[in-house]
Amino acid sequence: MKLRKGYLMLEIIVSVTIIGIIFFISTPIMKRSSMEFDSLIYEFKSDLRTVSTKSMNSTDSYIILMKKNSYSIYKNNKKIKDKKFHSGYYILSSKKRIEYFDTSRLGAPDRGMSIYMFDSKEEELERITIMIGSGRIMSYREDYLDKDMKKVIDHFMEEN
To answer: How far is residue 70's CA from residue 30's CA, in Å, rounded to a whole number?
Structure first.
């Protein structure tokens, strides 16, 4: 009897299946909620930067009104964007509006501020800071479970 060299189709299928299972298990699994929250933060920061850029050397006035679970953008008192969040996502800020009336050449609003975006499902917190003078927008994660930060967020949640 002659020995055949090579692999059977069944052996190849089993090998590819095992490699696929190992690959699937080893890839990081991201939570959908976390990705949705990150997307929401990115969109809000993008809108802030867009308004800042459009207000540079412009006679148009821009206002961003923030509510607990939505925000609206106005140009010369006419609404140009309205964004509502899914349940569980919140904007928390002591100031409810950002005004771009008398902006500098840099497109900075008249004052700096911090805005918190909160995901109550995953208990994730992002702090978005608009720097005074430059209008630069920075953000970073905060530790929601930190004792002092939890008090601040709970206060904002009760207030709204």
So the answer is: 25
